[in-house]
Amino acid sequence: MKPFAYIITILLILSSCATQAPIKSATDTLSFEKNEEEEYDIIVLDTEYNMYLMSIAKPMNFYSEEYYKNKNIFYVSEWNSRVSQPFRFDPNFYSMRIDYNPTENYGLKLEYKLYNYFQFINWKYKVNLDFGR
C-alpha cells in the first residue's frame, strides 16, 4: 500500500506543477493605422489571418461596405461587452477593447478586413459573437 501512496503523492505534485499554455488575447494582435494615402488599414500580427483572407474569406466586393460596417458595429459592441465582463468571459482572451468609431468613414478595405477578423476569430478559436453566445 505504501508504494501506491507514493505514486498518488507524486502524481498530485506533478499535476500541481503542470502549466497550461496561455490563451493569447485575440486583440493583442490587432491595430488600426493610417497608411501614406491617409486610408485606414488593420494590422493583424497573426500570420494565419492573412492565410484566412487569401484562402477562406469571401472576396472584398461580395458584400457592400454598408453591410460590413453594420456587422462590425455589432461585433465590436459585442466584443467590447465581453471585455467588460471578465467573470463571464475569459479575460485573457478578451483583454482589450476595440476602439472603433461607427461614425468614422474607415473605407471598404478596413471594414472588410475587420469583418473578416471577427470571422477569423470564429474560425480559429470557435468564438461566436452573434447574439451574446
Brief digest:
With 133 residues, the chain is mostly helical.
Number of strands: 2
Q: Report the sheet with the most strands, covering strand number, pairing sense and barrel closure.
A: 2 strands, antiparallel
Which strand-content bin applies to the residues? 5-15%
Low-confidence stretches: 3-23
Strand order of the largest sheet: 1-2
- Which descriptor suits the 3D outline? globular
The SSE string, one letter per element, is HEEHHH
Give the termini separation: 49 Å
Number of domains: 1
Average pLDDT figure: 80
Helical stretch count? Answer: 4
What level of helicity do the residues show? 40-55%
How big is the Rg?
20 Å
* Derived structural class: mainly alpha
Protein name: Lipoprotein
Pfam families: DUF6146 (PF19643)
Keywords: Signal
Compile the SSE list and pairings.
Blueprint (H helix, E strand, L loop, with lengths): L1 H16 L12 E5 L5 E5 L2 H9 L9 H19 L24 H18 L8
Antiparallel strand pairs: 1-2
Helix pairs in contact: 3-4
